[in-house]
Amino acid sequence: MTRQLFEGIKVLELGTMVGVPYAGKIFADYGADVLKVEPLEGDPSRSEGPFLKDIPNKETSALFLHLNTNKRSITCDLSTASGKDIVRSLIDSYDIVIENFNPGTLESLGLDYEAVTSDRTDLVMGSLTSFGQTGPWKDYKGSELVLQAMAGPMHMNGDPTKEPIKLGGNLAHYHAGLSLTYACILARLRVERGGSGDHIDQSVYEAQAGFRDRRAPGLTSASYTGRSNKRGGSLGRTASGPRPAQDGYANIMAGTSKHVPAFLRLIGREDLAEHPDAKKPAPQMSTTFIEEMEASYAIWLIERTKREAVAATQSIGILGGAILTVEDLLNDPHYQERNVWEEVEHPETGSIRYPGRHFVTSGATRKQMKRAPLLGEHTFSVLTDMGYTNSDIVQLRRTKVV
Amino acid sequence: METKQETPTKSDLPLDGVKVAAITVVWAGPHCTQVLAEWGAEVIRVEPVDAIQPYSRGAERIAPREQLIEMANNGITLSAYPDFEPGDEPWNRNPGFNSHSRNKKSMACNIMTSEGKQAFLKLIKEVDVLVENNVPTTIEKAGITYDTLKEINPRLIMLRMPAYGLSGPYKGYRAFGTHVEAMIGHHYLRGYPDGTPDQTGEAFTADAFAGLLGATVITAALRYRDLTGEGQQIEMPLAEGFLSNLGEFILDFEMNDRVAGPQGNTHHSHAPHGLFPTHGVDQWIAIDVSEDSEWQTLCEVLHADLLQNDTKFATQLSRFNNRDALHKELAKFTVEYDKNELFQQLQVAGVCAGPVMDDVELLSSPQLINRGFFEELDSPVIGNYRYPGIMTKWINTPNTLRTAPPRLGEHSEEIYKELLGYSDLEYKELFEQGHVGDRYPDHLLPEFLRAPQ
């Protein structure tokens, strides 16, 4: 018997922008039934872009299209009594609710965890906020930049003579969304094994403080030594790190590896390979030796493409990678051979490639990805399934509830 | 291996009763088993004591105190021991290792020896999950593949986390996190917009994602096993686990042929949006303003009347179009303030802002302390120290760190005898032959740690 990993789980998403929609996407991409409830004007990520041909259009925002594959969508105004009723009764038929309202908002709508679990114990509610449901900063405003600065490894990123720089894109929110996904599937496992659901309080701030990208280890070493990591620690290593190649940069760990003699032979410096410094750790090499190695390496590298240079050094056991752009990535033979991109058809964009699967399972199956829903695309069918009549729905539309 | 029969109660951890074997190195695999252990799994680290497992406990590069202090002066503390003292057992005092290994057990076992492999195969019968993140050929050389292990334990869930995959041109490529970052497009994207990739520094973002995603998939696979009775192999390369985090850039290329350049701290519409200097050396505050009313408030807090009245900066669009001038002007005001005081004033007034916090500063965050994020763990070989705790709170399921990071081989006797059924005599033989124990042999250690002759 085969099935999809999350098959049989029903997830109601009251989420906007990145974190909660990413959690919903992971569930939806692996077989859960995910219904997204959007405000009448749509998830703000529909207005975020980048858009097809840079023309603002709620159906062609890349951020939205990517994060909402395989979901259904209804629109609903939660500030109206009928809107609250619709969501309240939807919650009753779902296993997991994920949401990112500010702390206290769901309570003011009468839709908080206590209120919606008065007659059931199996609901899992995953709440994502900037700073958490409690604490002195719970009502402070957070954003990708601000949360990375406050709790992520930003103090370590970049050049010590310039300002620190953030990690790419919306990574703090993707990471917190993933952490929320993990918590929700854990809690659902407990429910399916006969235990209770729970209300999960995930903050982006704490996910950043526990981030394995250097922050949690850095907090541990700071606790051990009273000292902090700083920017620049990884810059300027001997014949290691990003260096210019013919078509961009390659990050090859040559001079600080155990393979310096083989590396020197590879770059045509058999003479240097025999030098006693070639067998020493980089900090003990003489300045003249380092300068000669660096100069020959610079010439060797600039005559090769970044991928050729990496392939050649990998063949003698040296760690490294080519610094790829998005274009390089999509044209890269390795990723193409492994089928990580997936063509998805959409009425506005036509068929384009999306990042597809995250992993390969030998047992569970996975289906072809379906495009993100149009705004309110499933409002009618969802309300009909809930028992609303055609005239009810017309009335709800007229009064701008849906 | 029996599925738990009794019904879990409300406060039971969801992975209570789940046993996990780990052959993991560096960051991604250990992070995966860290978060599994935090939610109840019994995680057994399978690690050699007769050889040094590289990139694990830091034992392949044990540095004396003076060198660690010099490295800290250059901004690197990730391998600095408590009070910079290696002590007699530095492999038990490495912060990179100890930050993930709390709650885990350590079983001395070298899968490359026949005694080790025999013990490992016995262990596989007893566990639900195996996690490994070595270069694909490493465990294949030891004859450990899903196809052979499932014969022993058909309910086994095996997670493999290679850098690039078990197939494809890059299958055999060796990489640390920083090299994977390059090959997934992240290094290029996170650079300075006016700089070159050699100024960006390294990051290990894909390791963090792979660890958490791996734990998510294992949990889903446990549920799948409950429903089907079947285990499975999960192949989750670091590279592939990460790609969807750059989805918006990938779709932009697909729709518009646009190759996103280095992003730095820029935003496509917010202004001001970036880091601004504050009082002191290398002190910064992040400010992110999207609405005009927030801009007005920002100017009021900073007493920046001239900026507030400047028509160049009146609307979101005009601020965005004049952002270089805006950022330059604003910096003249922020530099007069202490970053923490300015942060409080701005947030109380409703402006999205926050200081860049280094590791020492974040240890005293009032928000993290109020929410009990840090936890103390005491160990005779480490001392009593605070650790970053669990990054998710469940309102009705209190959860704390349970045990201190394990000493090398600390749980061998218990695991060999109680779980695997070795007799006292058999265990004693393994000990005498050096297969189990709690210390690496002298010849693998630097001079200053060897026993006096």
Tell me about this structure.
The complex is a heterodimer of chains A (402) and B (453). Chain A folds into 2 domains: 10-217 and 339-398, Crotonobetainyl-coa:carnitine coa-transferase, domain 1 (Rossmann fold); 240-329, formyl-coa transferase, domain 3 (2-Layer Sandwich). By secondary structure, chain A is α/β, with parallel strands linked by helices. Chain A has a 6-stranded parallel beta sheet, with helices on both faces. In chain A, strands 7-8-9 form a 3-stranded antiparallel beta sheet. Chain A has a two-stranded antiparallel ribbon with strand order 10-11. Chain A is built from 17 helices and 12 strands. Chain B has a 6-stranded parallel beta sheet, with helices on both faces. A 3-stranded antiparallel beta sheet of chain B has the order 7-8-9, with helices on one face. With 453 residues, chain B is of the alpha/beta class. Chain B has helices at 28-38, 65-73, 95-101, 114-126, 136-141, 146-152, 177-183, 186-189, 205-228, 238-242, 247-256, 292-302, 305-308, 316-321, 323-334, 339-349, 359-362, 366-370, 412-419, 424-432, and strands spanning 19-23, 42-47, 105-108, 129-132, 157-160, 232-235, 273-277, 284-288, 353-355, 374-379, 383-388, 393-394. In chain B, helix 1 crosses helix 9 (205-228). Chains A and B meet through helix 2, helix 6, helix 7, strand 6 and helix 8 of A and helix 1, helix 3, helix 7, helix 8 and helix 9 of B.
